[in-house]
Every structure is written in structure tokens, then in C-alpha cells.
């Protein structure tokens, strides 16, 4: 009887220690995320699974599971860089995870004029790469043009715009103190900081971490990963361990 009791207690302790270690790694070092939408195409695809570093910008309550009110503000804070791809909690509910690209820093002004982005009155350099590329937008496709954009700090990335130019002009956005302005790379299929009622400006405390690397990717439209005989079509092997830029 004592042997059975000791066996149960020892295994319970092992499980508890393993759980504590897993929570610490997830909260302080790296957390896996799944991409459920096409708002960051062509750089992040639906079905991508990636690791986000939790330590890059320091820690807030949103670094931990269920965002417990254990402290206020952000500790060990390090300012994010323009162009970083970041996971954050949406200001609307402080619960839902979004992933977007950081474009505007505190004090910046941004405005769309004739489909171009103006950052602090200067147009972001945009070079056309491809015409007529079909890009996912939920359950339908957009006919897009692909551009290489270059930010003032030299960061470059691909962004796609609907050829119908659905988002042409906007009011001027002024990023408040301690807040950031995010855009999806799929510019005409992204709910981001342009939409002040749903996302808007994101406070620094809402930052979760920086997207670092895609460790796995599958096309769920083709089939389930359990259909191993279709892995050649389902799994995107070329995206495994791809660094996120």
C-alpha cells in the first residue's frame, strides 16, 4: 500500500515540476503560435506555426497565461524596432492575440495617400515586384500586386496590395506616447491599427513577443496532417525553420 502511495506521489511531483518548467519556458522564453488568418501573407501563411520570443521587449502581465494582474506596467522593457513582426493583445479585449508588423513608433504620424504610406510626411519606399498574384483573404482571393517596402531604418519586407486599390486614403494617424501602430502585410485584408474601433493604437504593455522562426507549416485546405500519405502536398517543407523577416 505504501509503495503504491509513494509511486502516485512521485509521479504527481514529476508532473507538477514538468508543468512549472513548461509554464516558465512559455512565459519567459518562447511560446508557440499558430497563424489562423491571411492578414500577413505573403510572409506568414495560414497553417504556419512559429515561435515567439517572450524576452525581447521585457515582460508584462500579458507575458503569462491568462494575463494575471501580478504587476503593473512592463519590466526589463526594451523598445521594439520598426519593422518587427510582433504578437500583441488587442486593445479591444486585452485577450485576443494578433500578429502584425510594427510600422509606427510613439510620436510618429502615418497617412495613406493614393494607396501609398507616408511616415512622418515621407513616403515609404515601395518597389513593385510582381503583378497579378492571387492572395488569400478569408474564403476568397484578392488579385494583388506585390511590392518590396523599405522602412527608414533599412528593414525590407514584401507587402501585397489589392489591384482594385480598396484602401486608398486615410486621415492622419498620430501615434500616442507608449503606443505603436501596426499593419498587416496583406494590406487590403487586415484588421490592424488603421481601424481605431477594433484594434487602433497598441499600448506597450500589450506586446507579447517578437515572431522569430516558423518551425512547422501545413496547408489545411489540402487535408489533415494525419493523412501521412498526402504529406508531400499538405506539409510545406520549404517553410520549416524559416526565419521571419
Can you offer a commentary on this structure?
The chain has 245 residues and is mainly β. It has one domain (2-243): Umud Fragment, subunit A, CATH 2.10.109. The protein has two helices and 15 strands. The chain has helices at residues 2-28, 231-234; strands at 30-34, 48-53, 85-89, 97-104, 109-113, 116-119, 122-123, 125-137, 140-150, 156-162, 173-174, 179-183, 202-203, 207-217, 242-243. Strands 1, 2, 3, 4, 12, 13, 14 and 15 form an eight-stranded antiparallel sheet that branches. Strands 7-6-5-11 form a four-stranded antiparallel sheet, with no helix packed on it. A three-stranded antiparallel sheet has the order 8-9-10, with no helix packed on it. The protein starts with a helix and ends with a strand. The mean pLDDT is 91.
Descriptive labels:
mainly beta, Umud Fragment, subunit A, 245 residues
Walk me through the topology.
Layout: H1 2-28, E1 30-34, E2 48-53, E3 85-89, E4 97-104, E5 109-113, E6 116-119, E7 122-123, E8 125-137, E9 140-150, E10 156-162, E11 173-174, E12 179-183, E13 202-203, E14 207-217, H2 231-234, E15 242-243
Antiparallel strand pairs: 1-2, 2-14, 3-4, 3-14, 4-12, 5-6, 5-11, 6-7, 8-9, 9-10, 12-13, 14-15
How many individual domains?
Answer: 1
Distance between the termini: 58 Å
Kindly identify the CATH topology: Umud Fragment, subunit A
Number of strands: 15
What would you say the CATH architecture is? Answer: Ribbon
- What letter string, H or E per element, gives the SSE order? HEEEEEEEEEEEEEEHE
Strand content: 35-45%
* Unreliable spans: none
Largest sheet: 8 strands, antiparallel
Helix content: 10-25%
Give the class from helix and strand content and strand pairing. Answer: mainly beta
Query: How many whole angstroms does the radius of gyration measure?
Result: 21 Å
The CATH class assignment is Mainly Beta
The number of helical runs is 2
Q: Estimate the global geometry from the Cα principal axes.
A: globular
CATH superfamily: Umud Fragment, subunit A
Mean pLDDT: 91
Amino acid at each position: 500500500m505504501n509503495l503504491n502511495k509513494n509511486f502516485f506521489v512521485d509521479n504527481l511531483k514529476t508532473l507538477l515540476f514538468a508543468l512549472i518548467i513548461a509554464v516558465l519556458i512559455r512565459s519567459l522564453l518562447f511560446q508557440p503560435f499558430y497563424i489562423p488568418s491571411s492578414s500577413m501573407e505573403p510572409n506568414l501563411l495560414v497553417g504556419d506555426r512559429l515561435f515567439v520570443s517572450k524576452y525581447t521587449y521585457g515582460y508584462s502581465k500579458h507575458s503569462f497565461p491568462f494575463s494575471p494582474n501580478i504587476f503593473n506596467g512592463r519590466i526589463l522593457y526594451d523598445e521594439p524596432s520598426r519593422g518587427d513582426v510582433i504578437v500583441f493583445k488587442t486593445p479591444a479585449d486585452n485577450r485576443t492575440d494578433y500578429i502584425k508588423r510594427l510600422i509606427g513608433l510613439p510620436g510618429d504620424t502615418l497617412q495613406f495617400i493614393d494607396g501609398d504610406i507616408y511616415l512622418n510626411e515621407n513616403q515609404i519606399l515601395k518597389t513593385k515586384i510582381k503583378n497579378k498574384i492571387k492572395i488569400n483573404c478569408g474564403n476568397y482571393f484578392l488579385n494583388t500586386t506585390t511590392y518590396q517596402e523599405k522602412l527608414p531604418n533599412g528593414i525590407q519586407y514584401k507587402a501585397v496590395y489589392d489591384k482594385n486599390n480598396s484602401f486608398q486614403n486615410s486621415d492622419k494617424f498620430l501615434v500616442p506616447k507608449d503606443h505603436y501602430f501596426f499593419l498587416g502585410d496583406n494590406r487590403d485584408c487586415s484588421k490592424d491599427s488603421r481601424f481605431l474601433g477594433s484594434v487602433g493604437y497598441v499600448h506597450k504593455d500589450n506586446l507579447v513577443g517578437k515572431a522569430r522562426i516558423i518551425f512547422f507549416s501545413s496547408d489545411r485546405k489540402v487535408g489533415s496532417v494525419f493523412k501521412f500519405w498526402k504529406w508531400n502536398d499538405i506539409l510545406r517543407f520549404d517553410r520549416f525553420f524559416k526565419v521571419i523577416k
